[in-house]
């Protein structure tokens, strides 16, 4: 059966329990449990951690503890019955454990280890405390250590400060707030290890200053290692003061044997001494430890003849010193002993022995000899502090070692009562003796005895030093052959006090002979008595004694024989009649000197003192003796205190009239002497005397009379020193008076009681009289009053012995009341007066409630006066806190209503006023008057706050009721309420108490909320109806709002134990205040309208507090506000505006959360449902809720470590919401600026400019004044708009978007012109001109564009399930972009296919990213079609102002023709339209619309061919008009590419596919398109003819064979097309020429084959200057669909260098990931190569057909590497080709393309439609010669300049606009290619209309060709312009550099030329001189374009088709490059002429 437990209530888990049984409670080791029931070895109960979960656990797992159970039963509480410090340590360690682990996680390693150490110490100390084996002192010490460590840890972990008293946590309910404040202060100071503040608090009430702390040196002799003496030694240690040249301590003596060990074996390890009682002053003296070494042995150490061995003499040996100053630092820092080695120096001359230590200290090295080794005396030292009792307590080990206490020679600074001492220190100074007829001087030894009066030698009265027992005789050391020895040896004579009188000292002098017998012969003696005849002791002085002759036979038995003789000169003068016939004759020439020093508490050397004590012997001198007492030293007086006092009172009784005043004065003198800190410890002696020994029963009458007489005379006298002294002695005078009266009463059974009372009454009247005197005129009077006031509070306790509490209180009230109450009496007097009041309040008298009722009014009156005038605030606060402390203590026992009432009346108002003043001052950093230091301001504020809180806390309902009833008018009440609310508000705003004073802060909050509850009813009652007062109500509301928002009340941030503790004690005070606030709001009624919109923000702040109850209470207030405004204005616009405004700022401060948004919407919608204005309300709430969604997203982005992109996206989203949905212009403008700042930070200057433009567009060119806003000053609208325009232009300039800046320049120019501001006009026009220059000259990168889909509910609201197009950063390729996106969304999963995701992905709780590159479709097609516009200009329009983007995907429709796959290869083209065009205010915009179209194979073919024609036409025109200079290679390559491809069957594929009868019959609708294709082919032949003519004119002699080959090939091409297209034979004769062998023809179209690359780079200068890498990019589409990166390895039959290897990479074309992004294939794959190819073609051409279709659009495939066909003869290129290649390849540079891998960018796309098979035959042998390929390192993408469209020489060029990429050069026959995965990211899918690329594999590598300069000029090569994928630019010779016409860029993938500022790899080279063409004759003009109805041709690669229907051309991104060309302008004109002529 389970039964409730009786005793077993509380326990600790000592073994973890897993709770494996039913109902088992899981418990961890160390948890505490509360036990409810027990049953057979099991307990049932709860863990304190989780009190809600009950369960069972085994009883033997629990260690039971004793506990107190209260409220037994279901809800019982259990408190462990253990030391509160232990409980605190336990709780704290549990709390720290959690935080400690976090430190490790946060890498705060240092604190982690420190805290671990402290926690271990705490556990250890706690164990000691629990053991119960400690003494009380040890317990106290352990607790001190515990609390220091607890406080340290709490501070370092940022936890709350714990207020304590005597190491125990205080209960804030048991003490006043003032005391609590002080405890916090002192706890803080102890944590900071500084007690200074505490001391100032203590001294403020004039407590006695602290006792000086004595210091002690502990010295221990470890060993004497240098002991080579071989004899016993005595070592004497003493402290020596160098400055004064004297020893200041007794000597410590150690006796050692000849081995250096102690002579007494018991002394081993016990040779230690404690030099005591050194004052702080001594520690500053230049002290040394001096050790004298005396050997005991032969006369001469190394001469055995001198003296018989059995005789031992004390002989000087050596000395060692140690400076205490030098070692003090090191020994005061450590708590244990520290060792030192003292070298022992020997004396060179024995006669100077007495000075050896001085010589060593002064380093007079001639006087002593250093030891031969470093050893000596090894001693250890330790410095100890505190009185002896404390030292004994703290260092018991020292005293267990038998330490010798070695005292100072004099008295210490503080003489302790009971310290009985009677020591006479005698120093043997020197002697002068006669030679006595000897030839050598004597060896003199002095022997001394102490003899008593009867001649007996006193035993054990001579001590050579502490550490050894006293002896009866003393033998001095012997100086060899010295008749004038100087000893300087100090001997202590501890003679018993009763033997002192009558004793004398006798000194006997002997000569120690060193002859054989070695006798000691007596030859004289001297003596001195210890006391003079008058009873005084031997004075502290040098005494020169007479030496009397004697010999061995002389007898001293009858000492009377010599005692009658004079001992010294003074003695001789005193007794002249000395008989001359005595036995002993004085030796007149010999003298002997000793000095003495008495340290005795019993004997005096003072005559005056002795006379007083024996006054009866001199009855006539009594007056004089009393008068002379003042001149006796304090030491003597305190020694004989009791005797003196007894004597004084006996004298007083003897003759009161005669001696009364003198005795009174002497008494005053003695009492005041005891006030001196040196004698302060004698006060207890005085007290004891008064209590136990004082017997003057009649003294009180005389004392009262004298005191009164003094007081009464204070008004008249000028000198008042004696009066002041009497006032200072008041306390003890009263003690004597009262004790005397008590004795008299006892003796007479209470007679004369009335007389005594009346005399005291009269005395008090005199006191009042003194205090009431106006002291302003007399300074002396001030001091008298001050002295009186200082002593006054000390007499209360004495009076209480004789009078009742009420009587004494009346006396005191009268006295305090007699002080002038005005504050004018001068500051010093004010302080004294207040200090006196303070001590009154602190006195025992004040603790009685009867006396308090009497005294409080007068005390409060004075404080009130000072507070009114803001004077002496610090002292007043001290008094008040004492009063509150007493009242709090009394309130726990009795009733204090009356006193509190008094205080409320007197203080409340003035306290509030004082606090307001102090707070305003502390805010303005002024020092408070009456304070010495400004830094006390915080402390004084704290003091007064705690006083106010103490008062409020003591007030009950009745007090508040009285207070409120007592106001005369409502104005007074209003003023009071405003004051108190203001103080409360300041309390919370200013954080008077530091953040970690949680106890104080919570108590404050509790008092405030209680007070507010009392006052709110008064506010409601008095200021609601007709008397409504906005100010008071507003003050109330703002207080309530501040209160709820206090950081200390936000319990959500607290740890669970702390939260529980607070809730248990105070509840959630926010909820209490919220209820109060809500009910007050409801009470307002119609006046609510006054607080709309003012209180919306504050209330909103309150509702954002994360406390559900507060939110539930407060949110409905908004409905109320909307309702009232609706009633008043018919709408709630104000509420709406304010709510939105404030919501923004509050959420950005970190308030609010998702729950709040839901609750806000829920509560308000529920309320609004009932209203008539329901619709507007609902729409408002909905929009606010949506705003909150965005704001929360924005905040999360901003405060997290989010990337720029997220922040910018979020800001744009929020900004648009403000503009479009809620139309808040100001907020909109704020966010415009926030967004602009973010762009600037990310260096998105163009976007920043567009963002600012939004604000600029809101402004008009008007003079309307605008207020100050954000960082704008107040200015006119015109000025602001002008400033904005200038800034925007500046940002466009930084972003190199000059085209956008130019219209703004014009707009500004119009304004300046209209104002005739020509200076500004000139400036802006120059700026505009500069921008035009920049467009033509500066290099710009074309960016890539990427489409990103964000799918899944985990994305922030503004991204969720949306797709965006992003403008990439400079040089950013798809892979880099993908990485960036994945790092911004680390949780996101990259989708590997481009298909639109289904619902499961859209709704899942995850993040999916879908990314691929897209091609821009430019809007501005006109400029792109103009032939004469430089490419630099066009390049801008291709990638700016783009709103549409395209993405292509190839697929087969219907059955696939294996022989000619072009027939069935279609393109799926997706066009994305954005919400805004790029660039804009963001780098991203959302996709607004998607369109899908399919492009047929025929349309694709048309586009390919048309694009190529356009390219050729442009290029030829440039040569005709001499825009291209010097180098004909571009044209050669381009012509070669087209002709070769056509001849080798490329164009035949189209003929085969589309001119076939079957096709025509099956597709009757395509007739027109077929005709169009035919016409285009025909046009191409014309264009080629003209091109060859131009080539003929410019070709270099060395290149003639190539020209011939071209003519030959052209004939073949024409004839192959002849049958299909009649009329081609009528070609211009220029085109004909001898045909060259097939093998000499340059490879067709775009990409050079790898072979020719090889040729190029083997022989070009590049090869020498840097390694060049190339990538081949002609993989067939099936390969490109499977593998992302691919290296083709062939075997190396031809030995080539590694350089020659080329690199093949998968195409990122239509169906592949760009080579650097590998993704699995998801795109449609073409059939495998084995299934393709027509039977009529050899295998090696098979792939080409399909590849042509698979190539991405030209825009997608910028290629900038080249594959010249390898036209080899026996594997070697012909010379002309080598020459061509050298110039072409060198300068090639990469350019950028969205889906290209890094490698792809450098290598041009595969050949056009014509080039399908052309170079393959020669390619194979070359390819097979290479053993593999090298991966090209990534090169940053570079955008090319936007310039002309040029006809492209395919091998090197990519079109600028939509021209499709070239086809693969050729493929390996059946080469084992791995499949290439389709690219979800690849935006270009094979064929696309405007880009009409035959899909295939465009080059997918960046050729990172090293740059080098051809030619030998030392300056950088001129900028050149190249065709698209041509590495060779249009080379210019130097003379072209200065042409006036800006260089123009003709091709899109032209290699990037060095930008003038950035050092990018250089590709421009001067052509060899032989290649510069001569300007001979004009070539024939080209025929006009045949089809004007069609879209103008975009730059095409050969064989590409142009899409008819799509107007948008994607812009290319390539590096803009100026062509340093000169004559383009004329050339262009010529081209136009040519056309017109034709």
Helices and strands in order:
Layout: E1 3-4, E2 10-13, E3 32-39, E4 42-47, E5 54-58, E6 62-65, E7 67-70, E8 77-80, H1 84-105, H2 109-131, H3 136-156, E9 164-165, E10 168-169, H4 177-191, H5 196-204, E11 215-224, E12 232-241, E13 246-247, E14 252-256, E15 272-278, H6 280-284, E16 287-297, E17 313-323, H7 324-333, E18 338-343, E19 345-347, H8 356-361, E20 368-369, E21 376-385, H9 388-394, H10 396-400, E22 404-406, E23 422-432, E24 444-451, E25 473-475, E26 486-493, H11 497-500, E27 504-512, E28 520-529, E29 542-549, H12 560-563, H13 569-574, E30 586-600, H14 607-613, H15 622-628, H16 634-639, H17 641-654, H18 656-673, H19 683-693, H20 699-712, H21 721-728, H22 730-748, H23 753-772, H24 779-791, H25 796-802, H26 805-818, H27 827-842, H28 849-868, H29 873-893, H30 897-923, H31 937-954, H32 957-965, H33 970-990, H34 998-1022, H35 1030-1044, H36 1056-1066, H37 1069-1084, H38 1096-1103, H39 1108-1114, H40 1116-1129, H41 1133-1148, H42 1154-1168, H43 1174-1199, H44 1204-1221, H45 1225-1241, H46 1245-1258, E31 1265-1266, E32 1275-1276, H47 1277-1294, H48 1298-1314, ...
Parallel strand pairs: 15-22, 35-36, 40-41
Antiparallel strand pairs: 1-3, 2-3, 2-6, 3-4, 4-5, 7-8, 9-10, 11-15, 11-21, 12-13, 12-14, 12-16, 16-17, 17-19, 18-21, 19-20, 23-26, 23-30, 24-25, 24-27, 27-28, 28-29, 29-30, 31-32, 33-34, 33-36, 34-39, 36-37, 37-38, 38-39, 43-44
Helix pairs in contact: 1-2, 1-3, 2-3, 4-31, 14-15, 15-18, 17-18, 18-21, 20-22, 20-23, 21-24, 22-25, 23-26, 24-27, 26-28, 27-29, 28-29, 28-30, 29-31, 30-31, 30-33, 33-34, 33-35, 34-35, 34-37, 35-37, 35-38, 37-39, 38-39, 38-41, 40-41, 41-43, 42-43, 43-44, 44-45, 45-46, 46-47, 47-48, 48-49, 54-55, ...
